[in-house]
């Protein structure tokens, strides 16, 4: 199925908000992933769709979010020196969240067809960086230790000026001292990169910054041991 076909079909959109606008960002994304392992695309989703996600996250109070930690379930710690964002995992309990997960599911299938990545599922959370928050240089997955394959970050911020900080900085795959890209978290921008390969960081935000961070994963379930999620 071509991208156009699933774009026009949109069989399961609960909000009836058109989700994708054009094919170009998708082909660029594929090309980038094939050639360099990361990609940043603007207007990947329609403006209305992105706005609906923003409306959702903006209305969650900090008290209903988690202070994000470092590490997974067993060794989950809130390390405030490393990161200072609030998160809320996305469950399909509201139409816009359901639609987001379904669109990412569609993207998962398309990526598997085109790039043979064997992606099994997707997990994602809203993130809020209040003024002064950051996420120090890190990698989302260590080789062989995690099932996270492809990281995604969708930015939701309407007006983000130069000087507002909060940029995503991506470092070179082979030399993590070298910066290869720096991107403001502007509405509709989607960053995708191979989770095991790219160190990245979020510079100090000078005002509240919203995003949806997510991970396409492979299934590492063996025998009776269920792979832990989130
Ligand atoms: O928000 C971003 O730009 C990146 C967030 C991030 O690196 C993460 O949540 O692991
Ligand atoms: Fe990250």
UniProtKB/TrEMBL annotation:
<keyword id="KW-0479">Metal-binding</keyword>
<dbReference type="GO" id="GO:0008198">
    <property type="term" value="F:ferrous iron binding"/>
</dbReference>
<keyword id="KW-0560">Oxidoreductase</keyword>
<feature type="domain" description="Fe2OG dioxygenase">
    <location>
        <begin position="115"/>
        <end position="218"/>
    </location>
</feature>
<keyword id="KW-0847">Vitamin C</keyword>
<dbReference type="GO" id="GO:0031418">
    <property type="term" value="F:L-ascorbic acid binding"/>
</dbReference>
<dbReference type="Pfam" id="PF13640">
    <property type="entry name" value="2OG-FeII_Oxy_3"/>
</dbReference>
<dbReference type="InterPro" id="IPR044862">
    <property type="entry name" value="Pro_4_hyd_alph_FE2OG_OXY"/>
</dbReference>
<keyword id="KW-0223">Dioxygenase</keyword>
<keyword id="KW-0408">Iron</keyword>
<dbReference type="InterPro" id="IPR051559">
    <property type="entry name" value="HIF_prolyl_hydroxylases"/>
</dbReference>
<dbReference type="GO" id="GO:0071456">
    <property type="term" value="P:cellular response to hypoxia"/>
</dbReference>
<dbReference type="InterPro" id="IPR006620">
    <property type="entry name" value="Pro_4_hyd_alph"/>
</dbReference>
<protein>
    <submittedName>
        <fullName>2OG-Fe(II) oxygenase</fullName>
    </submittedName>
</protein>
<dbReference type="InterPro" id="IPR005123">
    <property type="entry name" value="Oxoglu/Fe-dep_dioxygenase_dom"/>
</dbReference>
<dbReference type="GO" id="GO:0031543">
    <property type="term" value="F:peptidyl-proline dioxygenase activity"/>
</dbReference>
